[in-house]
User: Fold these one by one.
Assistant:
Number 1:
Amino acid sequence: MTTPSVSITRRLVVSVLLLELLAAVALIVAITVHERHVQLKAFDASLAGDAESLMGAVQDAEDQGDNVMLDLRGVQLNKHAVYRVEDERGQVLGSSGDPALLSRAILNPPGFFEAKAGQIGYRLFVLHGVRTIDPGKPTGGISHKIRIVYGLPVGHVWHEVIEAIRFFAIATAILLGVTAILMVVLVRRHLAPVHELAYEADRISSRNWQFDAPLSAKKTVELRPLARALEAALLRVHLSFEQQKRFTSDAAHELKTDVAIVKSSLQLLSMRRRTADEYSAGLAQSLDDFTRLERTVEKLLTLARLEQPAESDKGDGTQPSCSLRNAVEEALHQSRPLAELKRIEVDVEALDAAAIALDGRDALLLCSNILVNALQHSYERGKICVKLARRGTDVVLTIQDWGEGISEEDRPYLFDPFYRGDISRSRKSGSTGLGLSICKAICLRIGGSIEIANHPAGGTLVTVVLPAYKRISTTRELSA
Amino acid sequence: MRVLLVEDEQRLAENIVAALREVGLAVDHAADGETGSHMAEQGVYDAIVLDLMLPGKSGQSVLHDMRHRAIHSPVLILTAQEGKESIVELLNAGADDYLSKPFDLGELLARVKALIRRGKGTSTSLLRMADVELDTVHQTVLRRGETIDLSPTEYRILEYLIHRPRAIVSKQELLEHLYDFAWEHHSNVIEAHISNLRRKLNLAGTEPLIETLRHRGYRLTGGAPA
């Protein structure tokens, strides 16, 4: 299944065009309303004007009854116009158009209204007026009340309105097209820093970690955080990659050296025919060499396992836990022969009950690594002080020796895999250079810390701070 | 011939030293770069086997300082690194050969011997001087086609002399190049070995091969080497 791609350019252009379209529709609606109003007003004025003209065309009939008549000479009427002119007696003076519509319409009060005749809609105007015959006479003349209805097909007005709408619609369509093209060009141009950033980022590889965010991206407010984040992330990845690379290279070096020893031991043995005793001694030596290779592999695997995320500890998702006091006691027990050999006094100051979220073997590994280190770097007939105490929600293990201490030069690298400070710490002392790395990995695994420092009395002080195990019931059970 | 091994890995060094001694070479061992550098600067080694990753002073700096002080002993580098660049760099810096760990002990011996030969200006493992033929691989000596049975020390003296035909080799030089620090050495031991060597090489109807120059040393005579 492929992820549907989303284009910011397209989205931007579509959004802007939609907004423009919405604005255009609103404009057209407003124009329609306005145009209709204006057109109707003009239409009504022309209706009223024409009706007045008709009123003006009502003349003296010059007959006996002083009647009036409609004289349309000189009056210009729209050819589609309908009208009917009546006097007060209902006498039709003139008419044109649908009689049914007009006879009904003329009864309306004066003013404008709309009506339909068949398919055609009309706007009509009713005008009432008075026509006086012979006003100069002493009697004051005869007044006739005249009623006029005059109408025109309203379709004409709508035609004008539609024309206006069409004009605006076409103009809007052209505007939208031009805007779309301009938008695409401009958005592309303004998004160029994104492309430059992507191009620069694309050049990063395990061979080339050089990444300098392009100036265009750094200048762009929206891209600045991304460029910075990229630079920072890359730096971290680079460091971690280099660390990994160094570790792999160091591990390969260690393994190759151990293999070289085993191989050379056996080859030396087979260089010529030897006595049974020589063979037997050689095989014993080779076995020792193999054991060392085995130990290096084991430690490497332990370190690799410890550096895996902690979630994979147990399949069922439960946290492992153990008593750190038990682990310290076991480590003390295991290292007793070495302590006795160097006649070192091991002073246990305190051993509080302390449960931690670690597998028992890892806890033992941690304690015995630190303890053996302290013993190895102590002088003969020296002293070591071990203390395990609770401090708030933490468990603090300190192991102090009065040995040679550590040089300031070595301090930053003490926990680096395979780091062996001076010659005295080199391989011949039997260390693989992984012990402290393993200790650190164990501590970090449960969010703890380990520190090594020289104390003023001369010698090393190792401080391990681990969070206490949280499940109280289990803690009680373990500390029992 | 005397070889210096600079290797911090104790067990590996033990094995290499034992193997080199088994093929009749005198071997000194330095466990760190600083010591190795000092020892190399004495200029008595016919070949130097140098590990790169050393505590203190690295193999690279040992090599650099050595060449800087005009010590021309051939150098074989031992490395566990893969990178070709560093090998090229080392060869350019004056190394003569290199071997990757884990190496074959037999190959190491063969390369060291080849380096010693080349250092003496010879390219074959078969050395000839007049009617004497010395096979450095099998460590056998023939004179006029007849096998001459020599003790390891006698063989080493003859090999050293054959490498320096017609040159006067002092007792001190022989001591320096044939014995390592592990040996008790006295100059009268050399005299005894030379006398035995002369006796064994002296077949009926042959010219004496080794000439003694009073207070100066020994010289191999009898025509140019083949």
Number 2:
Amino acid sequence: MATRSASQVFTGLTDEPFFISCRKKLKARSGAQAQKIVSVDELRLEREDDAGLWTTVLDTEDFGVLGIVDDGSFEDGMIRGVLGDVTLAEYAASNANGTQSLYSDHTQKRRGQLFELTSRASISAIAFDLQKTGSPTGPVTAELFASADGSLPSGAVLGSGTVEASALSTAVGVAPALAFTEVALSSPVIVAAGWYAATARFGGGDINNRIAIGIDSSAPTHGGHGVQQALADDAWTTSTTLDRTFRITGRRIPPPSDRYRLVAECTLEYLPGFGAGGQTEGVFRRPARVIASARNPVVAGIS
Amino acid sequence: MASPAVHTATKLVDETWFIEGRYILSRDGVQVATVDEIEETWLERRTATDPETWEEVFGDSDFSSVQKITDGAYTDSMLGGILAADPDDDPPPGSGYMIFVKCRITFTAPYGGHTCGKVFRRRWKIPASALTAPAS
């Protein structure tokens, strides 16, 4: 941050901060501040392709704690923010029309849902529509698996997190809770674009003290299928007529390239003594680049 | 942000390293953020240049004494540590190394006061010598 006009460098590996200094465009010919930023109406990270065209890689919703700060003596002359968490994939809780149980000796050990990510991402949390019946205790584990082609989960657990079963809300009949319980992963998991499965597992309780996960078996419309793993032999199967409601939270990670720019569209206000006052619009840009690393490797075709 | 300065080490293992974060954490010569916590440290080696590809050669558990340090007037702005891996694992000489340190930082109130993440990095070069492991 020593030089605001220099490129903003991102690694894509955490919720990194950025600043866009706008003072050069906010000053009058005399050098005094003439305008200040009132609001940031839109923010984008754009990437230039080989034909010189710019495409949006991240938009306003991908940025967190967006705000306006002073830039030296210039009041409200700089934009600040971080790369923030967004919903990466979801089948809304409001779609649920019933529940399925999980407990220690249930025939299904894990229940979950396949989903597709269209870009590289850092996944920080998995949410399901979870509720309890009776008094189950012990950890409910949300887990993330890869899926080679979107048909079945495969390989080892990529990441996981837990929530205490006793802390879940109590079921009312067989109705779904219609509200998500978010489970933070123990550490964020960086994954490439592709198919994945989010699952829930509960190794405690019994038929009278169990947890349940929300499902849509009426007219499911999610692009992936429900999946479950048998207790007896760990075999995965899909449910083509059933989707489980879920939400995946994390950050989209832009692939490495030197050809990015941050673009902020703002509302500006003239300071007293400059013109007739009032508000105008202003667009501010800052070059940016995303560096390559083992954890954020180069994507073919993006330079 | 300018490219990070290159640290030259006779070898990697058991050698102390530092990363000056003051240039990242200051504006107009005034500190605007401090390092709260170091979350992870790792070292990568470049395996190709066009396009640039990297592989991780040492992970967090291979480092010891990783700490934040006050650098003159800049509180908790410098990072330092020791790569404490097995000396037999010393990687070959070369200039394509990069150390990464992932931290939580907090900005001062005038700059928003928020806590967020930041990955500090520094290039690392190991010149060939009789003591360094042969290139593979």
Number 3:
Amino acid sequence: LDLMRQLQELDHSSQVRSRCVRFKNGYRMSPINKNANQITATIISNKRIGVYHQLLLEIGEAVRFAKPGNFIAISVGGDYSKMILRRAFAISRIADRGEYRAVELIVAPHGSGSSWLCAQPAGIELNVVVPLGTAFKVPTEPVSALLIGGGYGSAPLFGLAEVLRERGCRVNMLLGASTAAKIYAPLEGKRSVNSLKIYTEDGTGGEIGRVTEPIPDLIRDQQIKVIYSCGPMPMLAAISRIAIEHDVAHQCAVEESMACGVGICMTCVLPVKDLHGEVKMLRSCIDGPVMDGEFVMWESVGKSL
Amino acid sequence: MSNFDFSTKLADAWFPTPLFTASGCASSGKELSQFFDLRSIGAVVTKSIMIKPRSGRPTPRMAETPSGMLNSIGLQGPGIDAFLGDDIPWLLNQGARIIVSIAGETVDEFSTLARRLRGVSGISAVEVNISCPNVENRGQVFACDPDSASAVINSVKMMIGGELPIIAKLSPDVTNIAQIATSVFNAGADAVALINTLLGMVINLETMKPHLGGKTGGLSGPAIRPIAVRAIYQVKEVLPKLPILGMGGVASGRDALELILAGASGVSVGTANFGNPSAVYEIQEDLRKLLIDRGFSSLSDAVGYAHRAGA
């Protein structure tokens, strides 16, 4: 697993040092919220893409610190809302050029908070905290990478794909969902990958089956050195098992329900092996959302230690 | 109005301003220090610390409810050794004032924790959490029974009485909160903290089972504020000399003012921090303005003002 040790955190700014230092056996606690800003963001655009909404938020200077894998926490519902908690969304792409200094989010209007957000038009101002959490670490060498997304979990992988391509990596992508309508694969995103295969459980799009099925063959045929994944927890757990079996690095973006997003509520914890090999309940907002899959104790998620 | 006196006292402990973090809603301060200067608020009330490291309850640990949330953390924390080794020195280094919250499963554990705090310099007061609802056994919610509550406070008093002010944190899940407050006052509590969360439950309609990993959780947020105001008012009426640290759903300066008028000498902000990491500081500055606008020359003049003759 030499290459895993070579994965490094991508720095957009020389002021930013690695937030989360990876050691042989696990994690060292990261400096907390070092680059987070509580600011007013403006919705530049809000477009419906299939069952999802694509929101572009102008965040100004804060964009310099945002990296693929980071997330944003947004106040929802307006001043007199009964919704008291922020909603956390993965940043799918970062645009720091031209007229906008913006982040893109792909939002599924599932609950009351995300539905409210999807109903907001361009020009609306939002109170946001950004950027939060860990980012995907990228290989130091131009290797072959496999990106696996479940549902709208594919969104942050397209931003990552652009970064990996710029660094000379070959980018293979697998996307899966229960049904074709839930696959998120924008045209411009497709151009940033070398190969793309889609799986749906009901066969309405691509191949019938689950994204985990073709992974072993792809690892062998494409000489995959690192896997990046984002999607439902059972999918991440299954990919972790395959990655360990094939001795491939695996960076996954986990999902646990969060109340605060900034590390104070202790609700989004996961059992993870720390630096000393000891299993601890780590916060997915501070020590995640991007974690090394091999250190997450998947079989203990949702259980008492 | 620069001569407005915003300072407050909880027994012998003095604070330049009356807004605090609520225990369990600010960890040990590090996470919020990115958003405001910890020195600018009254004090950081730390997450309840236990003797040993504790991993807490299974996930899911939270559910949002109308104007509130349930949490089921189960006192996850690093244990007193790591806390005294890492968290307290860090807070002192920041120049923050500190109220340490302690929690135990037995009277002896509270006593041991109090002994460990004796001689730690730089702590302003100890909050004794005898009311955490997220424990396996309701019998461990000492604050639900006057005798159990006073046994804990008495043991802490024997260990650190006179050295550090002791604040007993009480549960609103009782028939007569003034009776519990009276028993901890008689056992030597220098102040009371009102209120902890209320026990609640959410059932997930997809699984048709209790949503939280721990099944039940503590209800907090603006939904419980009227209960906090009522509890503070009732205790102030019976024990007018006992200082009260008020908390429960405070999300704005006007909310904090309600608790002050009901009888709180200081106000802790908890769940509001989750929605707004700058909440404690913003609420404090709102409150300052509201008090000045109403013609108060000091915070202490407003404490319990709703009890005045004819009110």
Number 4:
Amino acid sequence: MDRFLAEGRGALIMIVRSRVLSGLTGVVAFFGVALLADGLSGGAAIAASTPNTVQYVVHDNSGLVNYDFQSTNAVNTNVDWPINVVFYNGASVDNIKFALENSYGANSTNRMHIPVTYYGGENHWDEDAGKKGVACPTTGRWTRHYRIYGGYGDSIYSQDIGYWVAATTHKDADECPPIGKRFYDSEEVEENIAAIWANAGYTVHNDLVSWSNPEPYRVEGNHTWNSNGLVTYIDVSCAACRSLR
Amino acid sequence: MPFAALIVAVPLLVAVTPVAGQTAQSFQCSGSQVAKTRVLQDLSRMTQAERTLTPTRKVLSSHFVVPSTVGLAQERFTSRLEIVVRRRQPLSQGPQESSARIRLAINDRVSNLIELTGDRDRIAYTFVGLLTGAQRGMSKSVVTRLGFENYGQLGAVKAGRNVLSVVLDDAGVVDSAVVSERSSVAYTTAAPQQLTLTTPETMRVPAGTEFTIPFQLARRCERPDKPVTVAAGAMNKSPSSLTIVADAKFSGIGDGIQGVLRARSDQPGTYYIQVTMQGGYNDQTRLIAVQVDQPNLESGAETRVTLAVLFLALAGILFVLRIRRWSPSASR
């Protein structure tokens, strides 16, 4: 598939260089091939690899794996991004998305997957496309993007931290048209989300717990890793805090 | 949550494969273990007006005193949230205006959370807890009654003065939510985990034939028996030709149940089957690695082909020897 896509993009460059591009047909062909290439890749980063062990992280016997995955295959050659934010004490997928709507109001369409476990047993695959600042950043522009997982009840309940959900973060760039699109900087988006909650008065524990998923800076295809492996914990219940909306 | 408490709550890391938790202890049911529960605080002293939450009055709170928590296990405090929700009419269609959540907390530690979403005709709800598992439902009524009991967060209840609060957040879908006087905090002798499911960790079966997956259910008997369903599904979806033939439903677990699920795979390979028990109290799931081998019939055929080749070779040798015996040179 990668080779096929690379050949597709090579053909695209040839089209760009041809005289056909001078007319309307060329423009249509340009976007058509670009969108075809994007469609074939699912609009996503090509599956990335990590040297780290893919493993469950549990609170009180319930939890999820330390990475999300491009498909329902939990192996370290099929990962997308490391978990780096946990919302706890009254969190659910819906209420976090609602709270962050002002900064992350656009829907993504590209679903990732993660196994969730309850009471020490492997339970099911959750999925989420996530929320972004803008739906499709044009050439030269980028946006922040998170995906959030809470299992079949949209929230996991553990007696040590209450209702909790976990998120992966990154930036998307150059997605429309999808020529040279890139995905990167999960650490910066983690800090951005933490700052949004901290500025409203919520308790934020930056980089509190290791989830054994550090990813030093490196480029892997269109996927640039940069994550310290320390997960930020955000307490979302606070009567005296300012509303994020 | 205090920082120190969170440090105590540092999560555990568990390798994905092999799967942990397969060797769960199986509970014993003697019939004399029925739990005792003592209500520490309910809302019966509040008027209905005081118990009514609206988009402009979003919080109610009640104080209660626990003289001492010595001898009380922190994991056995429970909280119950019961509400009667009146749906807003008409609802706007925008997703931002059509949701609400109601949460009960003990000293700001949330232990009951109900999510509501709605449109013009109905309201959908979701909640999850250690006693109920995840529950989803939908109501077309203007008024909907909801409620569930859950175990509280560790350390939420303290000796001395405590605060029980109920909060209505983002009331887009709700005109009012009346919190029942039965909403409460209690202490129970029943442990959070009431049920266990036991299965084999690995199985080896031939392809093309139906096989059975044995399982065992047990309960502590500290709470009343309830119906449960045991179901199985393939964990690895591609490539997989695994077919689960039957699920199992039981009206109760009684003193324990041994049962089987039936499955079949036409393709050799390694499959992961998750077996889930739902509907009682705590849901349970186990993962089984199933090695599906080439069918015995096929390997028998290989043996027969090998024997046939040997026989043919022998026959060939005999034939050649016979020709040489009857050839003119041989007769000379």
